[in-house]
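agent> step 3/5: call structure_predict on target 'DUF4230 domain-containing protein' (Sphingomonas naasensis).
agent> reason: downstream docking stage needs a structural representation; sequence fetched in step 2, passing through unchanged.
tool.input:
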Amino acid sequence: MRRWGIARFALLLLALVATLGAGFWFLGATVKDHFRGPDPVTVAQASLQGLREQNRLSTFAARYVAVVTSRQSRLGLGAEKTLIMPGMVRYEVDLAKLQQKSLSWDAANNRLTILLPPLEVIGPDVDLDGIREYSQGGLLMRFTDVEAQLDAANRKAGQQELIRQARDPTPVKLARDATRRAIERSFAMPLKAAGIDAKVAVYFPDERPSEDWDRSRGPEDVVANRY
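tool.output (status=ok):
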């Protein structure tokens, strides 16, 4: 009986030591997590979700003016019409297409890289009140349907010209830069508020930094603790 009592006491003592050890381990892990601060990937994912809920982002718009002329000849007579068509074009990014794999965290350099969907040209929104027309060859237009054909050709050519101007490298660069700055702020500000000093780099698909991207860890890898 005495031996059983000693053994029982020893088991209780071991259980107490194990319990205290687990408690100290949990406390140590909690303190470690507290002093380590917020996880940058968690903060970035929260920012990503907020952006996706906005659906579309438009940070740049520009007004263009198309000047087009159409001509036709019939029965030895000629007619032409010139159309001056102003219109507004917006540059947007579909934020709903952003995914977790669009983010890459480089812990060694404290750098968050975001790969955006392509920039889209939306429009043109034609300013109907600002349209001006000039014509020659009134006789042919009076007795035939030439004027209607010239108008249709000018409207189509005018819209195409507005889009062509909108896709010129200069405004596209301005639109990309404006979008890039907006996205950088959307991620950098929450990181800074969480006390994380991180660099944020934003790229479009044709600018993808493949070498750096391959070295970085995606959020899913960080969560799974994979390298």
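agent> step 4/5: record observation. Residues 39-223 form one domain.
agent> proceeding.
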